[in-house]
Write a structure and sequence with these properties.
Elements lengths: L1 H4 L3 H45 L4 H10 L11 H4 L27
């Protein structure tokens, strides 16, 4: 009955269906491309840092630098990494400052 009242209704619905499908597909392709580029970038950065250090973990890399008299990378002093490091293996000058010294301050968020 709708064909009798609205003669072009079926074609309009098909047109809008194709338009919405195309819109969703194009947005999906854009997001997928951005996601893939981000994954490649992270892989390149991780591969580059691992290749430059030649070591598997951040602690090993930091320990190697400290044994040469160089400062460890800044990442070992970040709050989320500080508890994962065995600081007894490092020289006294390379160990982080006691966080209790800064109690009550907002230096770490």
């Amino acid at each position: 009955m709708s064909d009798e009242v609205f003669p072009g209704c079926r074609e309009v619905c098909e047109y809008w269906s194709r338009a919405v499908t195309s819109l969703v597909r194009n947005h999906w392709k854009l997001l997928d491309t951005q996601y893939g580029a981000g994954i490649q970038l992270l892989g390149a950065v991780a591969g580059e840092s691992a290749a430059s250090s030649g070591l598997e973990t951040l602690e090993q890399y930091a320990l190697e630098r400290a044994s040469k008299g160089l400062p460890p990378p800044r990442e070992v002093y970040d709050a989320q990494n500080r508890n994962r490091i065995n600081w007894s293996r490092f020289p006294e000058w390379a160990r982080p400052i006691d966080p209790e010294v800064f109690e009550g301050s907002a230096h770490e968020g």
